[in-house]
Amino acid sequence: MEFLQNSLKVFNLKRYDFETECSCRILKQSKSNHYEKYKIKNKMKKSFAIAILFLITGQIFAQKKEQLNSEKMNISKEHYTFQLSDKVTRQKVSFKNRYGITLSGDLYLPKNEGNEKLPALAISGPFGAVKQQSSGLYANQMAERGFIALAFDPSYTGESGGEPRNLASPEINTEDFSAAVDFLGLQKNVDRNKIGIIGICGFGGFALNATAIDKRVKAVATTSLYDMTRVMSKGYNDAVTPEQRAKTLETLGEQRWKDAENGKPAAGPRNLPEALKGDEPQFVKEYFDYYRTPRGFQVNSVNSNGAWLVTNSISFMNMPILTYVKEISPRPMLLIAGENAHSRYFSEDIFKAANEPKELIIIPNAVHVDLYDKVDVIPFDKLGSFFNDNL
């Protein structure tokens, strides 16, 4: 799309210097592999030039001719990218959201849970991932810590229902979280007054939006937060010009005519290529290292093996989902981001906008995707104590 080409020029020609100042907590890893906590006054100056988010419409990369090497990738739809804990059981479940779409989930339970009702967590993300990836890993870890945890595929993706496929929606994906709360609250072993949410990457924004509107959610945490409505409509660091935005909307409108004529929405080129050329932005290389390698590949994942619809971004363009983030208060919020993550500013901006109680944790040296699956980097003990204290 011409808009994306123009956006590439914007980021290549102009560097964005910005300074943020906030009081936050940093976890510093000691030699004993434990985390020490200390408060800092963080002044950060960053300047970087990066392309518009590759997940927006799947238009950045053309599909390569090379075929997937099945000897290196596990292409089973049942493949999980992590090991199930021997302290946890996992069972497949399904439930419907308010739109009648059947969602597919995995329910993780602590072994030997007894007869006592337990606190529960609904977990989803990253944007374009499935439950056999990061959200399942998080659920597995949280179940080890005594929570009943539900990892689920969002509407239109993975094993969940909804047509057309590979579609995202800020409203429906927010609703998916509330539907997960519906399901958890009906389980006999769940204390429905102790339900929280964890959102990863783009589903961090949906998690905050769901918490703002759904008062049944008692606490919310995000990792590697993205506000998908902001980045799709305004680009990174809000760098998209009004002229570029107008051109994008015109192009999307023309695509709707084509889709209507063809009787179905068109899919864009795949989100990530079969192989890197070497000149991609660093954050794209990091996404590739997770989604397109045995580390995180899952055949049902849009990011691993597919593409969003060309018109996927339409509903994100004028629906700022975090308008009411202040209404999460007085319920607590925990935001976790990597020190070197290209997405860090989303968490910092939400931290500034939200009311107390709130907490921002910056993980030293971590990049965005480190918080997808690196269990020695993700502060799971902190997540456990946060929800134990607040549910």
Describe the structure.
- The protein is α/β, with parallel strands linked by helices and 391 residues long.
- It has one domain: 3-Layer(aba) Sandwich (Rossmann fold).
- Helices cover 30% and strands 22% of the residues.
- It is built from 11 helices and 10 strands.
- It has a 10-stranded mixed sheet with strand order 2-1-10-9-8-7-5-6-4-3, sandwiched between helices.
- Helix 2 links the parallel strand 5 and strand 6.
- Helix 3 crosses helix 4.
- It starts with a helix and ends with a helix.
Give a quick summary of the entry.
The protein is of the alpha/beta class and 391 residues long. Helices cover 30% and strands 22% of the residues.
Count of individual domains: 1
The profile of the biggest β sheet is: 10 strands, mixed
Q: Number of helix segments?
A: 11
| Computed structural class | alpha/beta
Strand order, main sheet: write it out: 2-1-10-9-8-7-5-6-4-3
Provide the helix percentage: 25-40%
Q: Gap between N and C termini, in Å?
A: 46 Å
CATH topology: Rossmann fold
* Residues in β-strands, percent: 15-25%
Look at the structure and give the CATH class. Alpha Beta
Keywords:
single chain, 391 residues, alpha/beta, Rossmann fold, ten-stranded mixed beta sheet, 30% helix, disordered N terminus
Topology:
Elements: H1 2-13, E1 16-29, E2 35-48, E3 88-96, E4 102-110, E5 118-124, H2 134-144, E6 148-152, H3 170-185, E7 190-200, H4 202-213, E8 219-223, H5 228-234, H6 242-262, H7 282-291, H8 302-305, E9 333-338, H9 344-353, E10 358-363, H10 370-373, H11 380-390
Parallel strand pairs: 1-10, 5-6, 5-7, 7-8, 8-9, 9-10
Antiparallel strand pairs: 1-2, 3-4, 4-6
Helix pairs in contact: 1-6, 3-4
